[in-house]
TrEMBL record:
Annotated PRISE-like Rossmann-fold domain residues: 66-355
TM ranges: none
SUPFAM superfamilies in the cross-refs: NAD(P)-binding Rossmann-fold domains
InterPro entries reported in the protein's UniProt record: NAD(P)-bd_dom_sf, PRISE-like_Rossmann-fold
Organism: Hymenobacter aquaticus
CDD domains listed in its UniProt record: 5beta-POR_like_SDR_a
Organism lineage: Bacteria, Pseudomonadati, Bacteroidota, Cytophagia, Cytophagales
Record-linked Pfam families: PRISE
Protein name per Swiss-Prot or TrEMBL: SDR family oxidoreductase
Length: 355
């Protein structure tokens, strides 16, 4: 049977890379977003708001996907609102598709907040699960919109008879403009501003993150795992961590990132220096840089997400994950983290998003 993909969030870091992965394997692929991308050759755009059930049903009329990939979420002011809105998005989507009886598999992308708790919990240091994080670790006794999203998938799968997979990345590294969780591009923008202004490339985060072991997820490797899980019998109805496969310390990587831009690296000095404050006065600096170098995006806020980078780099605990589960089932892709950053920086420069 032909595989037909519907990617929710196809304009984002994960969704756009997944679209390219599936199209390379000749899957007819539809990309759903409120403002869908039209610049990916072969991707069929679907404009819809997941919170508008009537409009969603109309947008999906005539489309009968076999595989659904949910890669987006909407940030709200409280975790209670995160739960309400993001679970409703999943429920509306799967309810709209249910009458078609075409869906064979649904993949949901969440993340390591499954183990760490919502933003407020791990920033405060109130939750410190043992590392490396493993899929069998139980849910925390905390409100968490990831759990609510999972429960919507489980309920629809029991009702409609499809299989599912859950994917838990750690800090996505990849290109996207307008994305709320974009550490790689945020650091590229910060380093570019440091280069232009003569400021040092100062570590913004915590001692635990500077000295501890860490890992990240290249957008290309999660795309490969999503494809693998959707087509592998042994991966059905399972949750998987997904990271590059190597580990590093920021104390090792930070000077290498600085060297790529030719700026001075400054490590942890005993104090956290949040990027949100560091970049708060740089909107005009970036507009000037964009004008002088004819960059494609003059708005700093469209490229950098310092609030989320601060959450990642400011954690008071070491965070790394275990990949044994999917490795045992046959997923053996690997990606060098250093190359993840350097490939991204080169792509951003080629696309004239950084000078």
């Amino acid at each position: 049977m032909q595989n037909i993909a519907l990617i929710v969030g196809a304009s984002g870091i994960i969704g756009s890379n997944l679209a390219q992965e599936l199209l390379a394997h000749d899957w007819p692929t539809y990309g759903l977003a409120r403002s869908p991308r039209t610049d990916v050759p072969g991707l069929h755009p679907v404009a819809a708001d997941l919170l508008d059930s009537a409009g969603l049903a109309a947008a999906l009329d005539g489309l009968a996907p076999t595989h659904v990939f949910i890669t987006s979420w909407m940030r709200q002011d409280t975790e209670a609102e995160n739960i309400r809105v993001n679970s409703l998005m999943v429920r509306n989507l799967l309810d709209a598709l249910a009458p078609k009886q075409s869906v064979r598999h649904v993949a949901l992308v969440t993340g390591l907040k499954h183990y760490l708790g919502p933003f407020e919990a791990y920033v405060s240091g109130g939750v410190a699960p043992p590392t490396p994080l493993r899929e069998e670790q139980p849910r925390l006794a905390l409100d968490n919109f990831y759990y609510a999203q999972e429960d919507e998938v489980y309920a629809a799968a029991a009702r409609d008879g499809f299989t599912w997979s859950i994917h838990r990345p750690h800090t996505i590294i990849g290109k996207a403009v307008g994305n709320l969780m974009n550490l790689g591009t945020t650091l590229a923008v910060y380093a570019s501003i440091c280069q232009a202004t003569g400021r040092p490339f100062r570590w913004p985060g915590s001692a635990a993150q500077w000295h501890g072991l860490s890992d990240v997820t290249d957008a290309r490797i999660i795309a490969k795992q999503l494809h693998w899980a959707a087509t592998t019998e042994a991966a059905r109805n399972e949750a998987f961590n997904i990271v590059n496969g190597d580990v590093f310390r920021w104390s090792w990587l930070w000077p290498r990132l600085a060297a790529w831009f030719g700026v001075e690296a400054v490590g942890f000095d005993g104090t956290i220096h949040p990027l949100e404050a560091e970049l708060s006065q740089d909107a005009a600096v970036w507009r000037d840089l964009a004008g002088r170098h004819q960059l494609q995006e003059p708005e700093l806020s469209r490229l950098a997400s310092p609030w989320h980078t601060d959450l990642d780099l400011g954690r008071p605990i070491e965070v790394m994950t275990d990949m044994a589960k999917s490795r045992k089932l046959g997923f053996r892709e690997y990606q060098s983290t250093e190359d993840s950053f350097f490939d991204l920086f080169a792509q951003l420069r080629h696309d004239r998003l950084i000078p």
